[in-house]
């Protein structure tokens, strides 16, 4: 199902260059500096329960497509703590596998099926049981336990995404176990810095309890954040992450910020003030990053839970997050005016709005010392999306203002497949440059190494 | 002039795959579910008058280009009920045919000249008379009568676009004639639902007279719409079409909607209320579609009659409609919050703003059960436009949330050429996926069939 | 370092077509109708001082990239009237030359190093001195004096960009010298028509002194502009240029305009009135162009001096200009409603927002007789940028509503390289059309000539 030369351009000259480049990086360790796997898997090191629980239920790429074609989420047992009928869920998925033709999900899954489970017949309704049984059986063998897979995947770093309210006890437990994996938390404070996050006010209260700070005061609240960042750093954290609706930043005086915080906390602030508070908090986070060296990641532009009926029935994250037009130029200026020339600061920008690649992001990253471009995100971490990213940013920002690849996934088993796609597409892009004499081949080998390893380590300070 | 391998990638491997795919679909019947041909042609079955009247005068792609290069519209007799000097119009067009180099118009016309009229020398000032005479002569032969062409084109369905104020007597006459063609009306209510449509208030009054409903009341107005939709359905209509400036929708209470309608009808509403009324009417149309099963098409984003001087001299539709930035995410939410999860509803979304393909439309169509993506529209129904559409939407929405091709044309003779271009570009895209091992060749054959026939029939319920 | 076939597609068929096309235009004279070289160079005809002063200091493409990777602008002596240590600046640049991999800067510079200076080892820290010494030596030979280079570059026209406050004495001196080069001024009135331009009010006063008009009155101010345009025309000027933040135009009555001018000049106008004034001035410029035949160029969409700290330390133009989202459809309507159908008017539109190519600019240029599309501008005058421009505009506007290439550069030595890139990319694009049978090869030869020469001369009335 998957071919040796997949994702390389058909032109023979270009393909042969791409193959040479790829051969030089295919076996490099995987660095995964941003994602949504669970540290807990590696504490207990229990087998993953079954194919549907592992591959279908957590993957919104999969169930959003099925839902779009009329499969009820109930039939897929989305939201269930434990699947009642995993074989039936798997069978529905298999029946609809043709829907994924032409999508990256298909590439990731075929890779996983073939490389990990040795399956070589295509998945369909007919082969659903064969797949289910083969995968289910293997999942209970020692080689498929979470820690074994971590090592088999040649993971060098695996970053999770964590709330400031999380004790990080799983990360601590991994460390305490003596297992030498590098599984690192990422500081994602949305739940305590975004007034529209569900439960925001209670979260801030709880945050005070956890940190022993008076989070009802601006000063105490900031202290709690500082303290928690340190706590994360002690467990290896090197980065923060911020998922606001917009990229807006602000640079209020301490007094203005303090008053705004009080209003927000008192529930007396309207939507504009909420937005302003989020904006100010990005600048506060930048200030703390200048102090403590944590790398900032900004992921704006996702309209969350667009489908209100589903949201009411199933809650957050059921696949109805839709990108919005996003602008960065005016939005980031307050933060950049304050900290944009700080040599010690690194901010990695992401976008769901591809129009910003050549218009805003590449020109900004090609100027400001603190800015780097994160890889194509979410709907765009696909072969065409990755190619558009390189084609739209390289000529202005070069390669060296980019930060390598993120798999950004909940789907642990897809990690090698995703990195493999990224490596192949980068090599395909580089091969085109070489074939068109826009880059020397010896330089392309160096760039391929840089994109796969060196730029990631440097960007994320690993 | 036209070559066997046109529009296929130059790489030999990819081209040979494209050719195989194309051979499997080139002879499939044409389904034309959205367009602007006239049912009346097929009633009288009179010969088309002459080349200029048939090919130049109705085609705004042609005269907008000529106008942009300094040809006065008067010289082309635009707006004349009957051409006084069709040979002269044709000659001006022929003199300027070089302007169309690199445009789809050129591809469509060369196909039509060569395949239909057997012309093999290029069109230019020198060959203008040869062309005029050859075409004029053939147009008066039996094989070039409208019904003969319908059959020769292997049309399976041909949908027109019709006002609720139209009696559809031409459609009725075709049915009554016993001729077995499938020429279907489409319900396009802009003239009675858009307060900015010229003559809106008189239209609503006349709508009341035609339907016998009290269209001065909200209830009667809605009844008139319902009744007229049923009338259209009785003549085979399966779809509605909506050409608002924006994609905005609203979900007002019955009382609010009723009051707004009164204000609008009394001429007391300002631009914001007009926009709100259009927004509400999209939701009303969706509600009726849930009831009666008509498929909704939404075509937003065209700034109509941008050139005011021309509009004052020549009226609507003289080629000065310009696309606007369009957003869908917030705009469609009121409608989708109400009806977005209805299994029985189909809404086909179009855009003139290509930035929405990957950012908004593919993510929405890849989630909501009711949404499908219409093909690249208007300025974008070109080889590059079609390719960008597939490259920007497939990875997120797949193929199966798209609705096949529309020719969307007034130019009857260009229909086979337009479908041929669409089929070739789809095959070129699929061939690239196959050549890069992103899709199996056997699957590509299936997808090619689906894009050409199955998805169109399913989307439009034909 | 540079290869014969650079920038041509790898596919052998397509490449061979591209080579044939390119061979037919590679030696055509260079027409440079828009740029930022200095007429003064050609008056004194003094040697350029040294490699760093010539190639690094004036080129914001270069130092913005170095700055983005942490090189202080002070180390590059940006802003210094004379470089204290050009060899050190050159050495820093050489050390970081790898940053430009994949960028057009790299292509331009390698071309210049190899073609002009005969350097064939790659530039790096190791070869920095070899480069510096080789270039420095050659710069002091007769063949590298400005006038010799002008002739060696086969320049046919070289337009500069000039303020209405400039005496144009350098242009006069070139004429007086009897040297037969065609170095033409361009009328760029931002300093006296943009209220936000630094020193605007003093500029207007000085403008009155220079012209002998009462520039405190609207009438006198317009007379001063008219008079100065005539003065420019007497020295060969054929075009104006306008660099506002947006493309907004207005069409005020004379009384409204006059009042607005008074308010603006009195310093009593706010940002909205400033914007309105700029908008009105574009329409005034169009009115004067209808009278005197100067071609208008509009370059909107650059957020100037985004990095406030750098602006405060180094002033304007230190590489922190960032593109903004730009819209044209509503913005240009007031001007176009007034003058859009004037046969004698030419307006060349540029953009930094590539989303407008297919959505707005091509549809407008493909309709309005006065509009032409300028080439990809600034960050987009790169191989991918040029290709996106052709792919996004040709199908709607054709080739004949475009205006050929601009090098738009301060970097005199890069002019041949930039035109060479443009010619190669156009040939690559045309070759693809030919290989895919979308254009006949004989037509492609004609189009290549037109894009390189004929359309430029026609657009700029040269």
From TrEMBL, chains A, B, C:
EC numbers: 5.3.1.12
Catalytic activity line of the entry: D-glucuronate = D-fructuronate; aldehydo-D-galacturonate = keto-D-tagaturonate
Species lineage: Bacteria, Pseudomonadati, Acidobacteriota, Terriglobia, Terriglobales
Gene3D superfamilies associated with the record: Metal-dependent hydrolases, uronate isomerase, domain 2, chain A
Protein name: Uronate isomerase
Record bears the keyword Isomerase: yes
Pathway where this protein functions: Carbohydrate metabolism; pentose and glucuronate interconversion
GO process annotations (BP): D-galacturonate catabolic process; D-glucuronate catabolic process
Listed GO MF terms: glucuronate isomerase activity
Swiss-Prot/TrEMBL keywords: Isomerase
Family from the record: Belongs to the metallo-dependent hydrolases superfamily. Uronate isomerase family.
UniProt key word Transmembrane helix: no
Superkingdom of source: Bacteria
């Amino acid at each position: 199902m998957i071919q040796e030369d997949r994702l390389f351009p058909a032109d023979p000259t270009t393909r042969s260059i791409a193959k040479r480049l790829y051969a030089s990086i295919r076996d490099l360790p995987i660095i995964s500096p941003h994602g949504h796997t669970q540290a807990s898997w590696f504490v207990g090191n229990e087998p993953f329960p079954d194919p549907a629980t592992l591959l279908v239920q957590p993957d919104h790429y999969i169930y959003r497509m099925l839902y779009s074609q009329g499969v009820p989420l109930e039939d897929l047992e989305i939201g269930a703590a434990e699947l009642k009928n995993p074989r039936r869920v798997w069978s529905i998925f298999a029946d609809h596998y043709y829907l994924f033709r032409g999508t990256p999900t298909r590439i990731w899954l075929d890779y996983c099926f073939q490389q990990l489970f040795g399956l070589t017949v295509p998945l369909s309704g007919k082969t659903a049981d064969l797949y289910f049984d083969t995968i289910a059986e293997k999942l209970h063998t020692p080689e498929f336990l979470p820690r074994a897979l971590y090592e088999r995947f040649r993971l060098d770093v695996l970053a999770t995404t964590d709330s400031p309210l999380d004790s990080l006890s799983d990360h601590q437990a991994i460390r305490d176990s003596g297992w030498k994996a590098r599984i690192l938390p990422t500081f994602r404070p949305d739940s305590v810095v975004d007034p529209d996050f569900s439960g925001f006010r209670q979260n801030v209260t709880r945050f005070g309890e956890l940190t022993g700070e008076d989070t009802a005061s601006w000063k105490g609240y900031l202290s709690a954040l500082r303290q928690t960042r340190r706590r994360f750093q002690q467990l290896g954290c090197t980065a923060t992450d911020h998922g606001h609706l917009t990229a807006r930043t602000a640079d209020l005086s301490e007094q203005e910020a303090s008053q705004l915080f009080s209003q927000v906390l008192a529930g007396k602030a309207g939507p504009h003030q909420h937005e302003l508070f989020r904006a100010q908090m990005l600048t506060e986070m930048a200030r703390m990053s200048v102090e403590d060296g944590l790398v900032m990641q900004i992921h704006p532009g996702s309209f969350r839970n667009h489908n209100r009926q589903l949201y009411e029935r199933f809650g957050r994250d059921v696949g109805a997050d839709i990108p919005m037009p996003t602008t960065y130029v005016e939005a980031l200026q307050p933060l950049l005016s304050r900290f944009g020339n700080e040599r010690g600061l690194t901010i990695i920008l992401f976008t769901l709005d591809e129009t910003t690649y050549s218009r805003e992001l590449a020109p900004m990253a090609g100027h400001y010392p603190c800015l780097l471009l994160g890889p194509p995100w979410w709907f765009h971490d696909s072969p065409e999306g990755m190619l558009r990213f390189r084609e739209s940013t390289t000529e202005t920002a070069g390669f060296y203002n980019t930060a390598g690849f993120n798999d950004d996934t909940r789907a642990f088993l897809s990690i090698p497949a995703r990195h493999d796609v990224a490596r192949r597409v980068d090599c395909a892009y580089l091969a085109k440059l070489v074939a068109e004499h826009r880059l020397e081949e010896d330089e392309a080998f160096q760039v391929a190494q840089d994109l796969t390893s060196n730029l990631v380590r440097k960007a994320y300070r690993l």
